[in-house]
Amino acid sequence: MKQILQDLRSGATRLEEVPVPIVQPGHVLIKTRRSLVSLGTERMLVQFGNANWLQKVQQQPEKVKQVLDKLKTDGIQPTVEAVFRKLDQPLPLGYCNAGEVVAVGTGVTEFSIGDRVASNGHHAEVVCIPQNLVAKIPDSVSDDEASFTVVGAIALQGIRLVEPTFGETVVVLGLGLIGLLTAQLLLANGCRVIGVDLDPDKLELARELGIEAIPASGGGGIVQTVIDLTAGVGADAVLITASSKRHDIIAQSAKMSRKRGRIVLVGVVGLHIDRSDFYEKELSFQVSCSYGPGRYDPEYELAGHDYPLPFVRWTEKRNFAAVLQAMERGSLRVKPLISETIPLEDYDRIYQNMDTTRSIGSVLEYPGTVRVERRQVRITEKEFHAGKPVIGLIGAGDFTVAKVLPILQKLDANIKYIASSRGMGGTINARKFGIPFSTTDYREILADAEVNAVIITTRHHQHAGQVTEALRAGKHVFVEKPLAITAVELEEIAAAYGQNSGSLSVGFNRRFAPLVRQARARLGDTATQPMQVLITMNAGAIPAEHWTQDPAIGGGRVIGEACHLIDLITYLTDSQVERVAMNGLGQAPDRYSDNVSMLLKYRNGSNGVINYFANGHRSYAKERIEIFSGGKVVIIDNFRKAAFYGMKGDRQPWFSKQDKGHYDQFRIFLENLKDTGEPTIPFDQILNTSRTTFAALDSLQTGQWIDVP
To answer: In its keyword annotation, does this UniProt entry include Thylakoid (predicted)?
Structure first.
C-alpha cells in the first residue's frame, strides 16, 4: 500500500510503498477512501522539516533540554547518534481519515466489515486504528464530508471548554479551517459569533456561512470593534484558533472580553500573559487538548477502556460522533471548505504549494485498489553469503534501530526480513540497512524455509508467544529480555524448547561485556572461592503510564530489566539462584515497584545483592558492580572503567565509551549458528534467571524468602 511520509531532515514528502498492517486486538482495519490535509498542522510540520539546524533548535527548546541532559549522562557520541536516528525516522502525515472497515480485531464489537467510518488515521491506503478513535459515518454524510470529522472534534472540544450558553457572544480569532468549523458549531449552539481574520477571502467565506466577520487590524482597532458590537460589554468568550508567534493575541483577547469572560486557546500563539489584563476582569484562560477527554491516555486509546458516560459525557470518540451528527443535520457545512480534491498519486500538488496556498481544506482521494492481504513489500534484491545463517528480524523499535541493526550490519549478517506491526518502521529500516523484505506478518518469516533463525525485539508481552511459535517452526531463536512476563508463559516456552530442535538465546548482554569477562577470568574458581556480588542500578524514573510499567505489556521493571542483573551475577558466580528475597521502598510497595533491593542465595554459597533504584540522580553512574572473592575485589563503574584489587597486572582498565556486551553477544550468537547451533547462554541458566524474577515478586508481597525451582 502507499503512505505519505515526511523527511524530518529536509522537510520533503514522499509516497512510500509499505506493507498493509495486520489488525491488532481492540483495533479496526480501515481501507481509506478520503483523507483531509489539515493545512495548518501539516504546514507547520513541513516548515519545521525545511528549517535549518538553528531554526529547528529555536522551534523545539524542550527537545534541546532533553539533548543536553543526555549529553551529561551518555556523552557526545551516543547523543549525536540518537539525534540523527530520530531525524532519520520519517513522520507519517495526516490524522483525518474516512474509509471502510475491512477487518476488526478481537474484542471489537461495535464495528463490522463494510461499515463506513471516520478516524484519525494517517494518509495511507490502509490504516489500523484503536476502536476508541473510530466513529461510524451516517448514511447521508459523504466520504468527503466525513474526512473533516477529526478537525471538527478539535473545534468542538474548544467550544466545550468555553461552555457557551444560548445567546452569548463568542469571538473566534482566526478563520482558518478549525476557526470556520468552530464558528459554525457555535452558531448551531445558539451563540452570536464574531469571526476575525486578516484574509479577505476567509472573511467572505465566513459571511457566506452566516458568520459575522470582521477584519483583523493592528493596535486596538479590533478590540474596540468588538466592544462596539457588544454595546460596550465585551465578548462573553473568545476562542483563539489562530496560528501565530505573536504574544499580543492573548492581550487582545483579554481586552475584548467582558468581566469574568472566558478565553480558550485551540490554536498556537505566543503565551506571554500580562497579569493585569486578567486580574482586573477576573478572566479565565484554558488551553484545549486536541479532540477531547481520552486523548493521549493509553488506557483509553490503546487499551480501549472507555470513560463512563454519566461521568465523562464527551470523550474524543463521542465528540467525533457529535460532529458527524451536526453534518447529518446540516448545521455543520464542510463542502464549502473543500478547496480541492486531489488523487493520492498527485499528493505533491498540495505539499509543494503549502507555504503559499490560500486553500482551506484539501482532500486526498484514494483509488480503492489496494490488496489488504498484501503484507509484504520487496525492498531490494540481495544475494546471501553461502554458509552463513539467514536471519528474520521481528520488531523495528528504537532498540532495534539503535543497537541490533548496526551491529548485525557490522557482522555482515544475512538478514532477509524485518517485521513491524505498522509496516512503516520496518520498511524505512529495510531500505537503510539493505534488507530485502519488509512485512507486517511475522508468520511469513516463520514459514520461510530459507530462514534459519529469528531475532525477536518486540514488546515484552509478545515475546513468549513469538518464541514458542518460532521454536515450533524449527527456527533458532534470539529474543530480547525478558523471555516471558508470567510464570505460565515461561513453562510453555520450556515445553516448546524441549520438544523442538532450535536453540534459544536471550539478550542478557551484560555477561558478554569485556570488563565483566575480564573480571570473571581474573577472579578465578568460584567453586572454591564463593563470591559476594553487589550491583547498584541507578535506573532513573520513568512515567507510571509507560508501557514497560504496564503489568500486561511490559511486566514491570523487575521482570523487564532487573533480570539482566540476575543473569550477570549468575554468570560471575557460575551458579544458579537457590533462594531470593526482595523488599521495596515505602510502607506498602506494590508488586511492580521500581525501587527494590533483592537478595540472592546461590547454590555454590555465593551471595548477590541487587539495588534497583528509580529515585536517584542522573549525574550518578547508572550501574556499579562490586565483586568480593578470596581476598580480591573488582569494581566495574558504568561499564566504562574497572578497578582490580589484590591481583597482579593492570588495575584500572577503561574504555572511552560504554561497552555492555551487545556486539559480542550477537557475534557469538551468529558464530554458534554457523558452527554448533548452541545457545549463547545455557538454557537452564535462562530458566533459573526468569524464575527468579517471578519468585522475587512473590517475596515482595509475602515478605518471605522464596525458593527458586
So the answer is: no
